[in-house]
Amino acid sequence: MTETTLIRNADWIVAYDRENDGHAYLLHADVAFSGDAIVHVGKDYRGEAERVIDGRDLMVLPGTLDLHLHAYMEMHGKGFFEDLATKHMWMTQLFEYTWLLQEDEESAVASTQASVCDLLKSGCTTMAELYCSGLPHHGWVDMLGATGIRTYVCPMVQSGHWYTPNGRDHVYTWYEEKGLENLEAALTLIDTAMAHPSGRLHGMVGAAQADTCTEEMFDRCRAAAETRGIPLQTHAAQSVMEHREMVRRHGRTPIEWLGEIGVLGPNTLLGHAINIDQHPWINHHEHRDLERLAESGTSVVHCPRAFAQWGDMMRSLGGYRAAGVNMALGTDCYPHDMIEEMRIAGLMSKVASGHVDLLRTEDVFETATLGAARALGRDDLGRIATGAKADLALIDLRHPSMRPVRDPLKCLIYSGTAGAVRDVFVGGEQMVKDQVVLSIDQDHALDRLQEGQNRALERVPDMDWAKRRADEVSPFCLPVR
Ligand SMILES: [Zn+2]
Question: Is the per-residue pLDDT at 37 higher than 70?
Fold first, then answer.
């Protein structure tokens, strides 16, 4: 028999409001779930329940969705990437440094597990993990399944990549045939994930970047996504360098080119799309990219923190939404704290637009929940509604970061910390209890990640064009005595 859990008389529930296709506060009411789905939202649940959670001093939230991260690698860069910029490639983001810290098989697993702990503990219940299909595949899908978070497995493929031989030039190297072979391996992996017995693994086709995939690669990726009825994600308009390269190659902005070759559409997610034609660093002769995104129904996954670290920002999240673009959020690099990511998204949008009303708290939360679900074509995620997946976060309203409580979603997004997230359920299964992740030994994962980071730092001279040591590339922020 399937066990039913009842959250009884919760002070606040952020429930789905069908009429407005948005969220609404429901006060002093119940949420019940059975198996992996919600069976009741409202006052006075009268059915049986094997387990009852007292809802006093709690806000029940739908779990958020992080639709763009690289959990397997980015955590290796913590304490290394924060203040790095390439002197001769200013405004181009980290082309010189991106590949310096290389994970190995063991630390990739540790990094993934540690990242998922951060996500779960911040109330996030779905991630899209964009990882490099060059990694060994053995056991990868089962490892993702065991983390407990709902995962869109998105192995990225590419026809080439960029690097710098000297800290000034931006050079592409191509291997188109090998890239297509990798696509076959990536699709096998996706099919394995989709058949995973946990029911929490899903597939997403990953064409790495607009400037590193050929038209043929995009065609094949699009067809593979369509055949499987799953989304496609690629990085696009993420740097000035990429824009210049695409104008040089095609006389088109990256967004324009993707539209021309048929990649834009409701089944496509673009990571970033920050350096579009209207961005002041781009200085393009016309501003039509937003219109192209909106008209095609393409979703954009916004990762504000990573770009803020490089001195760049979307202009603006509120503006993109107002233009009709479906927006989602991602943490991309680290930390994988979706509360912090929502806060940065909200604040950066206000700064970028100079406007308070253009992106309100409810819009930020919509982006991290319903907007993301829309991007995935899912009507059972990002909402608390009968029939939706029981992906839930219970927020402790007595946590100091939440008090005084007047409007708890505003408190959470603009003042709250992950410490206020008490319990988290994914598909009805409890993954966080009293702020402890049940599915992963977080300390153990972090110990192994530390060892992995140490190994990666040792290898920096082998990866760097100038053979510099890690502490030469990224000196400590204070003198070391
Ligand atoms: Zn990315």
Answer: yes
Q: Do residues 108 and 73 touch, judged by C-beta distance below 8 A? A: yes
Helix (H) or strand (E) holding 150: strand 150-157
Instruction: Write out pLDDT tens, residues 326-377.
Output: 999 999 999 999 999 999 999 999 999 999 999 999 999 999 999 999 999 9
Examine the domain organization and report whether 16 and 155 are in the same domain.
no
Centre of ligand 1 to C-alpha 251, Å, is: 25
DSSP notation for 175-188:
-HHHHHHHHHHHHH
Higher pLDDT, 90 or 208: 208
Q: What is the mean pLDDT of the chain?
A: 95
Number of domains in the chain: 2
The answer to whether the pTM exceeds 0.90 is yes
User: What CA–CA distance (Å, rounded) separates 179 from 207?
Assistant: 10
**Structure confidence at residue 93 (pLDDT):** 61
Instruction: Give distance in angstroms: CA of 180 to centre of ligand 1.
Output: 20
CATH of the domain at 337: 3.20.20.140
The whole-angstrom distance between residue 367's C-alpha and the CA centroid of its chain comes to 12
How many angstroms does the Cα of residue 395 sit away from the middle of ligand 1? 29
Q: Are strands 268-272 and 299-302 parallel, antiparallel or unpaired?
A: parallel
* Tens of pLDDT, residues 157-184: 999 999 888 888 888 999 999 999 999 9
User: Are the beta carbons of 312 and 339 closer than 8 angstroms?
Assistant: no
Give the structural domain span for 141: 64-375
Q: What is the pLDDT of residue 90?
A: 55
CA 41 to centroid of ligand 1, rounded, Å: 36
Residues 165 and 203 in one domain: yes
The answer to the question of residue 475 being in a domain is: no
Residues 6+ apart with CB under 8 A from 151: 126, 127, 128, 129, 144, 145, 193, 200, 201, 202
CA 387–ligand 1 middle distance (angstroms): 32
Q: Which residues of 454-477 are buried (b: 16+ CB within 10 A; e: fewer)?
A: ebbbeebeebbeeeeebeebbeee
206 and 106 within one domain: yes
